[in-house]
Design a protein that fits this description.
Keywords: Hydrolase, Magnesium, Manganese, Metal-binding. This protein has 4 helices and 12 strands. By secondary structure, the chain is of the alpha+beta class. The protein has a single domain, classed as Nucleoside Triphosphate Pyrophosphohydrolase. The longest helix is centred in the first third of the chain and has 15 residues. 33% of the residues are buried.
Length: 219
């Protein structure tokens, strides 16, 4: 337990001084909650989205969604977690924020990191969430990626995005990008989107994509 408490305190201390990247310009906004569940072994809370949704159907994701008019991004992340998995906002201690990322639909998504000190029994909203599961932080810190997706952007930058598999679930794409920053900024793991680690197979995209990010955003 001492080691686990140390891991959580390290996460809290590092994120308190972290300065996430901000996107310039006017974007449609959404937010997600990266919830760290303080069990005996701290774990990351994830969901599998139901089939038939208008976006990200059938994908592994963090609880989150579009911001309502007049709503703060922090409130949006907490509200979505409550609506999707029954996580009461009063159980969440927000400890930091990660860099804004852009979805395939052109929405700027802000990730907030929160500790869940008294873990409840999560209840999946069947209209949005097919299942709720957890992945130990210690497992993610080992960077057990199956492969790395090399996404070439038109400005010459390549993003190296991991793909992880856990108990039949696959974590990839935007959520995996957030995990990379969480491990780097929060736990000091030597990992980044600007490079691919040795060992894991590299899969290159078939076409270059237009970059929505400033040239030095991920460097």
């Amino acid at each position: 337990m001492v080691e686990n408490r140390t891991q959580l305190e390290k996460l809290r201390g590092r994120l308190a001084h972290y300065r996430p990247r901000r996107l310039p310009g006017d974007w449609r906004r959404a937010a997600v909650l990266i919830a760290i569940v303080a069990r005996e072994t701290p774990a990351l809370l994830l969901t599998l989205r139901t089939q038939g949704l208008s976006s990200h159907a059938g994908q592994v994701a963090f609880p989150g969604g579009k911001r309502d008019p007049g709503e703060s991004l922090e409130a949006c992340a907490l509200r979505e977690a409550w609506e999707e998995v029954g996580l009461e906002p009063t159980r969440v201690e927000l400890i930091g924020q990660l860099s804004e990322v852009i979805s395939l639909h052109g929405i700027a998504v802000t990730p907030f990191v929160g500790l869940v000190r008294e873990p409840p029994s999560f209840i999946a909203n069947p209209y949005e969430v097919a299942s709720v599961f957890e992945v130990p932080l210690s497992a993610l810190a080992e960077d057990p990626r199956q492969h790395t997706d090399a996404i070439e952007l038109e400005d010459g930058l390549t993003l190296f995005v991991p793909s992880y598999a856990f108990d039949g679930y696959t974590l990839w794409g935007l959520s995996a990008m957030m995990v990379v920053e969480l491990l780097d900024a929060g736990l000091g793991v030597d990992i980044g989107l600007d490079r691919a680690p040795p060992g894991a197979p590299l899969r290159r995209s078939m076409r270059r994509r237009q970059s929505p990010y400033p040239t030095d955003y991920w460097q």
